[in-house]
Fold these 3 entries.
Entry 1:
Amino acid sequence: MTETELHLPPPRAWVGPLLLLAGGVFIGLAPIGLRLGLDHLGPQAIAFWRYVFAIPLLFILLVAIERRMPARINGYVVLAGTFFALDIALWHWGLTLTTVANATFIVNLGNVCVGFIAWLFLKEKPKPIWFAAVLVAVIGAAALSLGGEPGGKSDIRGDVLAIGAAIMVSGYMLCSKLARNRLGAMDVIFWLTVVEAVVAGFMVIISGESFMPPTLAGFAAPAFLALAAQIGGQGLIIAGLGRTPAAIAGIIVLIQPVVAAAISWQLFDESLTAIQGGGAALILFGIWMSQRRPRRRPTTPESKPLQDAVRNAQ
């Protein structure tokens, strides 16, 4: 075995993080789809149709891939779906009052906090490098959010709603992790979406919004969100949670505000300053730090006899 081979991560060790990273990129498109759909539907109705459009597609995918009907739903899925639907409801309201980057940053603080919650409840103690990665990523996220030019569209009411969404997203990540430990990824994402559609329907009624857009063109944004954010984004994140510690997952999905801010720069004229660009770079660096693994010391001729003796003794 060469020294290079000794430094390689365990087989499939990167599958979970890569799934989470791809899911975070797709979820980063969610605020873009919301902004583009607000001319036709309210924020809660957009969320409702996002889930409704995704349900039949997820059912077809589950049956085609697993060759069976969905497994029985459990309580963790119900809790996770409720938390996520409330997170999206508060986040959608917040996005109508503050900038995309600001709302996304605050919500994603909940993803970081889930690492501490998992440590407390799931006994998933993070490695020391995780704390440094969190610090770097949060500083970067703060710079991305708060480093814009003054006089923007930020509103304290939107920030408060985003804080509530951050609390919900922590509960969602924790319960999704528990659900994923008991069910397959396809079962979890399917039942999550069903629960989310039910909760979102109540949110539309409570908010007084109309379920139907004035024209069929109003369904374009929810359909886009169903494919990109719900099936692509949330589906990949659920799959990645089954292969990745919750603490690491919370940092990886911080790619969301980077994607959202970069696209918003072009679509909504929310230009990025040098500070915000540096913040985006820090987030990416924090994600990279969270994935670092300790280097294994190569086996030397002098140490090999001792290692063989220990192995034989075991």
Note: The CA atoms of residues 206 and 304 lie 69 Å apart.
Entry 2:
Amino acid sequence: MSSADAIKLADVEHRYGDVTAVGPVDLTVPSGEFLVLVGASGCGKSTLLRLIAGFEEPTFGTVRTAGAPPVPGRGAGLVFQQPRLFPWRSVGGNVALALRYAGQSASAADVDLLLERVGLHDVARRRTWQISGGQQQRVAIARALAVDNPLLLLDEPFAALDALTREKLQEDLRTVSATRTCVFVTHSVDEAVFLGSRVVVLTPRPGRIALDLPIDLPRTGITPDELRGLPEFAALRAEVGAAVRSRTEVTA
């Protein structure tokens, strides 16, 4: 594993009983890359993410993050489909708890700085049930960013949100993730191409790599509408969509 590699999966296979969910998969993710895993439901995207996070161990093969086996809850910031916030704590209290758990300063200034990064500088004292679903997901992202390491793992974090909120959070994530290695799971082809610097399409179960595609699109100096209006964006979206559909139709 190169010192520039954030993640390396070598001949990884994962089974649940006699069912093979994933593999074999070989995958190397360089530091600073935004990798998006896309594919049909049940293809093993979330399983791969849990393996990278250290929540599960592969049945065969090896998983390494920063050259070592992943440590659950320590090796990466995590964002799930549901925010999973503590409702008895304020917004700021949720972020402060994440900072303390990470062994970092949890002063009001530190909390405010993280909330400001996700556009929530004015809600620190509110309870989580007093803010919208989109704002709650921003809090979850701020909490993940509190972990002082370069890896951020996101499992369909915008799936339950309305289209406008989803697009806004996609834009925000592009900005706040600029200094981290990210692995993002989604069903959305448009979201995959918009967010990723690289897209991996997985086959239906057992999940294997059907397409590994670099996304050579500008990440700065362009608005989201301008980006989506590029002919290159349309071509990449068509290529990823075709790979997802073809693999789904083969097993239908």
Note: The beta strands are 5-16, 19-30, 34-38, 60-65, 77-79, 151-155, 181-186, 198-202, 209-214.
Entry 3:
Amino acid sequence: MKKILLIILSFTAIINALEITPKNVKNANTSLIVLNQKNIQNPKLTFDKHNINFFPYPSKKESYYALIPVSYYKDKKAYRVIVSYFQNNKKIFKGITLNVIDGKYKSETINVPKGKVSLSPKNKKRVEKEYKEAMKIYNTVTPELYLNGAFIKPMNSKITSSFGKKRVYNNTLKSYHSGTDFKAAVGTKVKAVNDGIVVISQNRFYAGNSIVIDHGQGIYSCYFHLSKMNFKVGDRVKKSEIIGLSGSTGRVTGPHLHFAFRINGVQVDPLQAITLLNKNHLY
């Protein structure tokens, strides 16, 4: 009986040491893994063959966190997340299940100039170059966390197009809506959602005038189609500072703010990510 009790207590301790929120996550959403363990080194996790580092939990002692961004195109099924770390010179493994479920995103049809859908060789080359440059940035994980309190929204405005909608351009399915669109006339002020460092400040074919902020530890916020950009690459920006003005540059049908989020290089629902980070005091 005593042996059985010890096994039960040991199993309970393992479960409590590893937490996942949410356990059932929609495609293109983010899950938080929390590792509560003393005196450990080099904690890491593997999710579907992708390695992700843990960081010290900002508001919890002797705890670590990792963010798992789930791709929009990830297969809907159960995945085993494997966590490893060293303790007393011994490598320890733990596992927990993450269920990826269907986000059930809607579809929308958009009519745009033909040149913005069927690209000329020159524009195709430009798009490929801009994508490669951006992905190199998004896949960079800065060790420092720059956050200053909870995230805010980039503006208080009506959402005109939610994240994840299938985008049908001129009757051809091309992509999904990779951000959240806020209603904004040309010249509306756009706020930084938290502290960070500007890593992109340029005009791009699809996104138009773009500002991207690195918030540290793999978290990036993106602000597209601006009419004016107030910061350049390398500038430090504080939460609620006016980083630019909304506009209609790039591939758009009218003025608005396209707000997007990248975590560990993966495009995710920005509002779900912000809610998750704020709710769990990851700052």
Note: The CA atoms of residues 149 and 156 lie 19 Å apart.
